[in-house]
Design goal:
259 residues; five-stranded mixed beta sheet; two-stranded antiparallel ribbon; 6 helices; 9 strands
Length: 259
């Protein structure tokens, strides 16, 4: 099917469900890219063996004919202030290096129930309090289109993971600047009360690419990972369907600033 890293979350979920690809093959591809481009510093915590094991289990469940969720076998990365039981949650600060949550945040739990695989924890500005993602404890996040530039913040690691096709989708904070420097725009969830287990100075929501349509049940329908996709503008009021701008438009699109 061509380069697996180019698949959107929608396409990946459909391909796995239809048996066109295996979750393990997708995981192998993305783990390889994450390791190859580790210099971007998109992750604070990442365990390729853990991702591959979860993918193999997803393939076993499919072969058994079990009911599959909307995101079955699809890797999704999480900003490191969203609790996940599989990885520490540091919020990008030294004081929380050993913070190991005993349960998943509600958004993480919902996505895992839908079949998603936790694809590591993304680098962020310390305690989500800044826009550069120059982190004194864990290092700077590098814009994949120009590594001399910042990706935006505080969720630059998540934006970089999606923009560089290390992960088909990611979860992060709601504000536009957080990753717009890397060409990724994010959409707030319609029910922000679900983000209770978060270490942050603000509310959290899905870090999705343009086309996100809303609920977890629909979440497989609009993820992408490239500047070639249309970019949306952050929704603040009105319809949950995002406005979109074509590639090449200068509206709402920039590639970060110098460090």
């Amino acid at each position: 099917m061509g380069e697996l890293s180019r698949l959107s979350a929608t396409a990946a979920a459909n391909a796995i469900r239809n048996g066109d690809i295996t979750a393990e093959a997708l995981a192998d591809c993305l783990v390889g890219r994450a390791q190859r481009y580790s210099s971007l510093n998109a992750f604070i915590s990442f365990d390729g063996a853990k991702v591959r094991e979860a993918a193999r289990e997803a393939d076993v469940r499919r072969r058994r004919g079990e009911a599959l969720g909307a995101l079955h076998g699809v890797p999704i990365s999480f900003k490191d202030n969203i609790n996940t039981a599989a990885y520490p949650t540091t919020a990008g600060t030294r004081a929380l290096r050993s913070n190991n949550p005993v349960e998943n945040a509600p958004i993480a739990s919902a996505l895992i129930v839908a079949g998603a695989i936790v694809f590591g924890k993304n680098m962020m500005h310390e305690l989500a309090f800044g826009v550069t993602c120059n982190n004194a404890e864990f290092g700077a996040v590098h814009n994949p289109y120009d590594t001399k530039m910042i990706p935006g913040g505080s969720s630059g690691g998540t934006a970089v993971a999606v923009a560089a096709r290390l992960s088909p989708a990611g979860i992060r904070k709601r504000y536009r600047w957080v990753g717009s420097g890397a060409g990724i725009f994010m959409w707030p969830d319609r029910d922000e009360t679900n983000f209770e287990t978060v270490v942050s100075v603000g509310h959290c929501s899905y870090c999705l690419d343009p086309g996100y349509s809303g609920s977890v049940g629909e979440i497989g329908g609009g993820f992408g990972a490239s500047r070639r996709h249309h970019y949306g503008r952050q929704r603040t009021t009105g319809s949950p369907k995002p406005r979109q701008y074509p590639v090449g438009s200068s509206k709402r699109l920039f590639l970060g600033g110098p460090r």
